[in-house]
Specification:
Largest sheet: 2 strands, antiparallel
Order of helices and strands: EEH
Strand order of the largest sheet: 1-2
Number of strands: 2
Radius of gyration: 31 Å
Structural class: mainly alpha
Length: 96
């Protein structure tokens, strides 16, 4: 007996193929029905990847500029921060 199906099934062929019969990309809801929808989906995957890499590059640039800004602030001499001094503590002159 043939069981009724709930809808189209995904063909999980992992090899390069142009067969668009029941092909799913990334998840079952992204179903491919024709060669045109396959090409549009491939362009969509490329756009998603490029967008992801753009966000990563912007994040790297932001972190680099933040680190550079923090280094500039730390390099300025201030009366509260004197390199080599530990809060006014002088060697050999401890308090009792």
């Amino acid at each position: 007996m043939h069981m009724p199906s709930d809808g189209p099934k995904c063909n999980m062929n992992m090899l390069f193929t142009w067969d668009t019969t029941d092909l799913c990309i990334i998840f079952p809801q992204w179903h491919i029905y024709s060669t045109f929808s396959l090409l549009i989906s491939l362009v969509g995957v490329i756009v998603l990847t490029a967008g992801y890499e753009f966000v990563r590059e912007m994040s790297r640039r932001y972190e680099a500029s933040s680190a550079e800004y923090a280094n500039k602030l730390a390099s300025k001499t201030s009366p509260l921060y004197i390199p080599g001094k530990m809060g006014g503590y002088r060697k050999g002159k401890g308090h009792m």
